[in-house]
Amino acid sequence: MSKETLFTKIINREISADIVYEDEHTLAFKDINPQAPYHVLIIPKKPIATINDIVKEDRELIGQLYCVAAELAKTNGFADTGYRVVMNCNEDGGQTVYHIHLHMLAGQEMGWPPYTNKMKA
Ligand code: AMP
Fold first, then answer.
1. What's the average model confidence in pLDDT over 69-86?
2. Probe ligand 1: pick from 41, 51, 88, max atoms within 8 Å of CB?
């Protein structure tokens, strides 16, 4: 079961955010602690806690998150140069907010692999 997180408060405009896209089922806003020149979070309005909580009925909704990323890439000029989208899951995945969100990072060349010194032995 999903608990309300601060992202629900952003959806409900109880907390302010720099919103860059909204439709009936999704919202995208600038990350408060950007890890790239352009870093937005694309979220479903439905509060799904983690990737593990996605059910078959959510397939279209999850696909829509990627459609929003592609649209933002086009409108912001990143479609051809490239960008990264990533969704973290649970502690080892680096998830801190338990309302699924697609990170979209752009505006610089991305490194790979995406982890640094936090790798476990
Ligand atoms: P994750 O660690 O994958 O769960 O990502 C959570 C992201 O939410 C982090 O990149 C945070 O910087 C971002 N974040 C936390 N609070 C806010 C907020 N109030 N507005 C925008 N982004 C936020």
1. 98
2. 41
Of 39, 99, 101, 103, the active-site residue reads 101
Sorted by where each begins, the domain ranges of the chain are 6-119
| Span from the CA of 43 to the centroid of ligand 1 (angstroms) | 11
Instruction: Compute the distance from residue 41 Cα to the ligand 1 centre, in Å.
Output: 8
Q: Is 25 a catalytic residue?
A: no
What is the DSSP secondary-structure string of the chain? -PPP-HHHHHHTTSS---EEEE-SSEEEEE-SS-SSSEEEEEEESS---SGGG--GGGHHHHHHHHHHHHHHHHHHT-TTT-EEEE---HHHHT--SSS--EEEEESSPPPSSS--TT---
- pTM: predicted TM-score of the whole model, two decimal places: 0.95
Supply the pLDDT for residue 115.
82
CATH fold of the domain at 6-119: HIT family, subunit A (3.30.428)
| pLDDT tens profile 88-108 | 999 999 999 999 999 999 999
Please give the residue that has the higher pLDDT: either 116 or 9: 9
